[in-house]
Amino acid sequence: MTIKRVLIAGAGPVGMTAALVLSRAGIPVTVFERDAGLAEDLRASTWHPPTLDMMGELGLVDQILQDGLIARYTQHRDRKSGAIAEFDMELLRGETDHPYRVQYEQFRFTRLLQQHLAAFPDCRIVFNANAQSLTQDGERVLLSVETPNGIEQHGGDYLIGADGSRSNIRRAANIDFPGLTFPERFYVATTAFDFGKVLDRLCYVNYIADTDEWCVLLKVIGSWRCLFPTPPEEPDAEVLSDAKTEERLQGVWKKDGRYDTEHRTIYNVHQRVAAQYRLGRVFLAGDAAHLNNPIGGMGMNGGLHDAINLADKLAALHRGEVRETVLDAYERQRRPIAIDHVNANTARNKRVLEERDPQARKRTQDELCRQAEDPALARAFLRKSSMIDALRVSQSIQ
Ligand SMILES: Cc1cc2nc3c(=O)[nH]c(=O)nc-3n(C[C@H](O)[C@H](O)[C@H](O)COP(=O)(O)OP(=O)(O)OC[C@H]3O[C@@H](n4cnc5c(N)ncnc54)[C@H](O)[C@@H]3O)c2cc1C
User: Residues 179, 344: contact at Cβ < 8 Å?
Assistant: First the structure.
């Protein structure tokens, strides 16, 4: 079957990646983005090995490696005892072409995708275009889009809802989004202060457990991002205040003088998975389909795995290699991964960091140290934390 056009709601990393895979397969695409330009906010920065492998196939990985920071090691630390479990991702060599994480922010990635998509005249990215509602029949899907010129109707063979956590497409398709929102929110402060120079053996990706206040320290180009939980009762103004920010950062490393910060942001944190990923000609992908807490860096990575899985199927259908029923496998292959792997792993990562019972915390840290020191155990740990296992399970589902 020749696909005449695929509509995509949302020019985030997931929608734009789907657009690139489809464009490379010769399928005309229109991407509708609600905002006036690509998002510049600081969210994902961690790239896992299998996602880098996929980017290799799309011709993007060289630029990602050139502009990002290669993180060979990841660490799990205990703030009070100082114990460090350090995992060497080189152990994954042979399982992936990229045995490391890369720290490369998602706003750089969507810009890169926009440059690559410019080479495809049949790919249109329309800004200030708020996808609102849809209708569909056996032949086509019709999308209503609010633009500065009024409501427009656009038709396509299929629609991908990659319009993020508050997806209008999910709502318009009447698909439930069960799960939970944590009472606490996460606070991210970005500072140019070089924690690597003062904290012993710090690597680029550090999970630091603590009874009082756990944190995640991530190196990105030119800065460190420090992620902390915040109590539900703490008002936004207090979380974001100079005084509270200073207190939190001084807790990471007590230094003379104040910390300068470049960005401060608070996020709500959820664990949710859409009840369906497909309704007829409409598909959900990325944050529109699943949300998880960011500890472990799996949200965008998992969303990119969705985008490539779905777009590859549409491309095979377009080339006449498969029948339309192949599209049903998308939900079968991706939805259980969001529940059993991404949500399960990130929820466990959060529990480990926030464990308050000293004995339980020590047991976990001892176990992490034991795993890090044993190459076979470390490899098994890394296969799980870098999403290799999740993808293998997904690929084994028919
Ligand atoms: C603090 C933090 C750190 C994170 N770190 C990581 C990490 O290191 N690694 C990782 O894998 N993940 C991480 N994540 C998760 C990651 O940011 C998301 O999973 C990712 O942004 C999802 O991409 P997406 O394209 O599905 O959605 P989004 O990035 O939300 O993009 C959706 C796009 O759709 C647009 N849109 C919304 N509504 C409409 C509409 N009605 N019509 C048209 N357009 C619309 C939006 O403007 C936006 O451009 C992190 C998240 C947070 C909060």
Answer: no
Closest residue CA from atom 31 of ligand 1:
12
Name, in order, each residue with C-beta under 8 angstroms of 390's C-beta and a sequence gap of 6 or more.
302, 305, 337, 341, 342, 384
Predicted confidence (pLDDT) at residue 312 exceeds the cutoff of 90: yes
Q: What's this model's pTM, rounded to 2 decimal places?
A: 0.96
On the CB side of 49, CA atoms within 13 Å amount to 27
In tens, the pLDDT along 197-244 reads 999 899 999 999 988 889 999 999 999 999 999 999 999 999 999 999
Q: State whether the beta carbon of 157 lies less than 6 angstroms from ligand 1.
A: no
According to DSSP, residue 34 is labeled S
Alpha-carbon gap, residue 82 to 56, rounded angstroms:
38
CB-ligand 1 contact for 306 (6 Å cutoff): no
Domains of the chain as residue ranges with CATH: 6-180+270-396 (3.50.50.60)
pLDDT, mean of residues 128-139? 96
**CB-CB contact of 163 with 129 (8 Å):** no
Q: Are 263 and 247 in contact (CB under 8 A)?
A: no
